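So, can you check this one?
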Amino acid sequence: MPDEENKVVPEKVEDSDEMRRAEIVVSMVLLLGVSIAATLIGLGIAITFIQDHSLASESYKKVATKSFHFPTTPQAIFKSIAHGQGMGITLLGLFALILTPIVRVATSLLVFKKSHDTPFVLITSFVLVVLLTSFALGRLNL
């Protein structure tokens, strides 16, 4: 009997170690995504205030009513960044923040696929399809 228990325990430990590594990978994806997004947003806001000193000295009401041009397409965002505009960098940070959960779901899918966890592969695939479909429908204004 003790031999049977010893055979079962190492497998559980191995599975536990693999699950722990998977959790760390998924956690790192979230941490990295949020860190990149926060850095870009902070940098973009700082550059925006440096470029337009009046924003820092005006009251909130004046700043809130100012007319800003916000790039709304990826091409416009990258053009804004190429021109050194803080607003483009801020919006890139927001885009990174929006993409973080999608990358997390895709990473989870790969982890579940590697561990041959079919139920979770199916569930995670469904969640990823729903996320991507929602973005596609949003892009089409539906």
Summary: The first helix runs from residue 2 to 51.
